[in-house]
Amino acid sequence: MSMWTLVIALVCALIVWAVLVRYLMAQPWLPAGDPGNLADITAVDEPAKKVGLYFFLCAISSLFALFITAYVMRMDPNHGADWFSIPKPGILWINTLLLVYSSISMQHAKTVSTLNGQKNLKRALMTGGVFAILFIAGQLWAWEVLHGSVYFHLSNPALGFFYLMTGIHAVHLIGGLYVWARVTAKVFNNAQPETVNLSIELCTTYWHYLLLVWLVLFGLLLLT
Amino acid sequence: MAFVAYADRDEVHGHDPDTFITKYIWSQDHKVIAIQYGGVAIFVGLTALVLSVMMRLQLAFPDTFNFITPNDYYQFVTMHGMIMVIYLLTALFLGGFGNYLIPLMCGARDMVFPYMNMLSFWAYLVSVIILLASFFVPGGPTGAGWTLYPPQTILPGTPGNELGILMMLLSLAVFIVAFTMGGLNYVTTILQARCRGMTLMRMPLSIWGIFTATVLGLLAFPALLVASIMMIFDLLLGTSFFMPAVLSMGQASDTMGGSPILFQHLFWFFGHPEVYIVALPAFGIVSDLLSVHARKNIFGYRMMVWAIVGIGALSFVVWAHHMYVSGMNPYFGFFFATTTLIIAIPTAIKVYNWVLTLWQANIRMTVPMLFSIGFIFTFTHGGLTGLFLGNVTVDLPLSDTYFVIGHFHMVMGVSPVLVLFGALYHWMPKMTGKMFNVTLGKIHFWLTFLCTYAIYLPMHYLGILGIPRRYYAYGGADFIPASAQSMNVGITYAAIILAFVQLIFLYNVFWTLFKGKPAGGNPWEATTLEWQTPDTPPKHGNWGAKLPEVYRWAYDYSVPGAKLDYIPQNEPHHGHDSIESDSDDAVDEAKE
Known about the structure:
The complex is a heterodimer.
Chain A: H1 2-24, H2 38-42, H3 48-75, H4 91-113, H5 121-147, H6 157-188, H7 193-223
Chain B: H1 20-25, H2 30-60, H3 70-106, H4 114-133, H5 163-192, H6 205-237, E1 247-248, E2 251-252, H7 260-294, H8 301-314, H9 330-358, H10 367-390, H11 392-398, H12 402-432, H13 438-465, H14 482-515, H15 579-591
Helix pairs in contact in B: 2-3, 2-4, 2-14, 3-5, 3-6, 3-7, 3-12, 4-5, 5-6, 6-7, 6-8, 7-9, 7-10, 7-12, 8-9, 9-10, 10-12, 10-13, 12-13, 13-14
């Protein structure tokens, strides 16, 4: 585990270095004449909101990676032999399908938002959001199923982690739904495409990202 | 709609303040938010300063101040540490100076997300209020030590083990949300909103330090959030993430195999980068102060940038050196000792470069320069003792002694604080438009610097004697000589003087506001963009009708052949001139 972490960290560091080296080799003390075009210099020719979202996703990735690390470390019998694997409620499979469909709908919304007339945009956005809400409802159902079962012992860390990780994931999705609700309201008020398209695109990125996180978390829960 | 770079946009600038409330309270202007952040951070820092004086009184005169109980003492220790590290240093460097300097030094009109920036400050204020409110809840604030190690943190016997610790954890969670909102602004503004010509490698080192520290914060604070959330679960719901099987007050707990070491890993995975979240902005800022007041370009600019980035990356692989005494696989200890010693290399490069910047420079002994030179001393001292403690075998006997207190106060307490003072004096003329009282500033520096050494240098000696830290009183232990107690008394006197000396600084701030003479736009004759604004203090939008354009790096001081000993970053090169041709002209003139 730690070996792989080290290798991944090393590869990431090399990639970052390869990206940065173009800039970091500059010799700024030499006169360079006219100021260049900023877009050429920074290579971040993207809207600020998009860059901000990418950094936010980095921060959340750190959060979930640390939860997963804590999960794996806590499983280690050397840390305590009180880990009892719990059966995963079957509804989680349905929830996963709901989130996948939600993500597909958001992708569809993003695609049609750039087309003339934006046909079916409202329907695609609504489907994306409603299925995400259904996903959260399904997760709550899974909580309820476990709560009523014989496995509900909070001192079992496997159970604690289940609630913790599904809960944190759902909180992030609810944050996304807040933005989605604002965008959808604008679309239903027939806002100009240029005022909403970026938000739709960023929502879609966020949806895909949270789907990916859920698939990793679900895989981890199933395997352990 | 095609994307237009910030630098190519016209003057239209949203969120113009039109009422008192939008101008000074719910402000979205980065300069106002910076001062709001700074004001709250300094206020809460003074609270922590008072707590430290109370601790020192107890240590020097153990049977005199009966109102300081053992519980109080531990609560003071905990709150002092947490406030100083997070709510003062992190908030003031990034929330304060980050907010003030990034748009001005990068040539932007504001942060790219002003509304979120405003939310960031108000969330920070809420976190401070929650933290200070814990003084008034039943049981008082937590007394678990700033590291909040379980299981003792939430077991009976530790002060504030119920509401106190809950409020601390909630406050930290809110702070992290505030930091994330601010941090996303800082990195995005630096990447997106720089003016034309401001390449990454033309940025002043202050911005490099703040940028790297913010990236560290965005990646490291989640570890503290994870640890806090899991501990809240343990505290409120009875889960067993960190809580092992314990007998507490004769009762066996329901928990079985929780891992306190897991908490330590999470805490220090945040905790060590946190040291550099505080130190990197200090490194950057002090580089700029030294260069400006020495009238010389910073020595090895490119190496300085690499060192900042390198230190930032390495800071993620040294955390377990805080846990040698917790016990670990010897290979693990070897790995972390090695990485810890490796991080000394880029750090030493920086120290050499600061010293070489001063070498043969035209040094102006201004107040910011005094604080910067003071920083080089304290940082070198603290850094060198860090090399001792980075080694497992040396750390084990010293870890629980005053040597560690001396080390970390020197390296990440006093050093960043000296830079903060230097920076406050340096940019005060820009923030207020007025010049501070130089004599008071110099008195403030010398007393602060000398008292600092009077406090922390003897602590190293106490540590080597084996005087343990975290003790409320020492009683009559045989291994503690009477001289150690005399030294404790001396340290306390110095600490009290140091605390009162800070009143000089506060007085100086008010003196500047009400009696200070107009400072002019560029009193230090500096090259960076914040000194080239059309108005001082800069107005909303910073630059008037036209954004600046940058033609050179931030360190054109004493350029041979130039008319003045500084050339602002936004001054174009004339024709096809270059440093060489300027030099040739100078040589020609000399011949004539």
